[in-house]
Every structure is written in C-alpha cells, then in structure tokens.
Amino acid sequence: MKQLGKRLAEMHLNGKSDRFGFHVPTHCGATEQDNTFEDKWSTFWTERRIGDLVRRLADADVTRLDKELRQHVWPILFSKETDAKIKPAILHGDLWSGNYGVGPDGTAIIFDPSSYYGHNEAELGICHMFGGFSSAFFRGYHDVIPKLQPHYEERQKAYEPALRILGDASQLYHHLNHALMFGGSYKSGATSIMRDLVRWGKSQGARHRADL
C-alpha cells in the first residue's frame, strides 16, 4: 500500500498540463464528465465537477446548498493564494479499491481510469469512500507530496468521504454522482456533506468578522 501511494504521487508529479480538464470527455461510472478546459482549479471544480452534477440533478435542496457553497465555502477553501498553488496533475479519477491491484512481479498497478488534469488532492477522495486503502497508502503518498495548507482537512470534506465536517466522510463529488446514477440515500449523504461544509464556512466567516 505504501508503494501504491508513492507511485500515485509520482504519477501526479510527472503528468502535467497547463490547464485543468481533458481533451475528451471521460466517464465516472455511467456519468459522462464535463472536461472543458479551465485555467483555474476553483473554476473547474465549481463549474465542471460540482456545478455540472448539481445542474443535472435539478434538485431544489441540492441547488440551494450549491449556492451556499459558492458563497461561504469555496472562496475559503480555494482562496486566490491556494488557487495559485494548485497545478494541473493527471488523475486516475475513479480510484476506488476495485481499480487497483498487484502485478505478477508484486508491483502496484491501477486501471479503469476516468482521467483528467486536476488538483492532486481530489484523487484521494474516493480512496476513502469505499475503503480498501490503508494508512500506509496515505503516508506513502504524502511522503512524496505534502499536504497543501491551509484547509487541507476541510477541502478533503469536499473531495473525500465525510458525512460530518469532523466525522467520517463521504466524498461530495462522488456522492452527487451516485445520487445522479442511483438516487436514494446518496442524495441525503451529499446534502449532509454540503450542509456541514456550509456550517463550517459560515463559522469561518463569523470568526473573520469578529477578528476585524
């Protein structure tokens, strides 16, 4: 697992582009992803990933929460300073436990990608969603690519699994995608994450105003 984390980080470091997106659409499950190129990660994330799924779901609660995320959360998690530090990296895009294995020589391998050029941290989200990745995997990864601060943990609530802002997570993009494909509990999981993120964002705004 540590080797897999290390090799994934090395792939992120070496697969580069000057923009976020991909030259053709790719699929995450049955969902065709909007890979239109964008110059900034914050734009690609809010419009081509979260925003695209919100529009397709056409659900009143999800749409309302998306507006609150845009107002209270994304400007904090993707500040101008943080946005400038995020560089496009080639991602597997759908790295759950069924999409990695071990070759005959013992080498860790990944397959069945849903690739695009994005923020390397976004790759780690689905690694938590269904489990199967040990702490050694994340240690190996961050030995090569350190966590980007500030707000690494909070961004992971958007990228990675978390039904509560400080509890077990359940990644927002993939919950929205599963809600689009399967409905049911995935919608409630997605709205729970969105509400937790909005509460956190509002608390950060209140704290900032109190400091002024």
TrEMBL record:
Its EC number is 2.7.1.172. GO terms for molecular function: protein-ribulosamine 3-kinase activity. It catalyses: N(6)-D-ribulosyl-L-lysyl-[protein] + ATP = N(6)-(3-O-phospho-D-ribulosyl)-L-lysyl-[protein] + ADP + H(+). It is an enzyme of class 2 (transferase). It comes from the Eukaryota. This is protein-ribulosamine 3-kinase. It comes from Ceraceosorus guamensis.
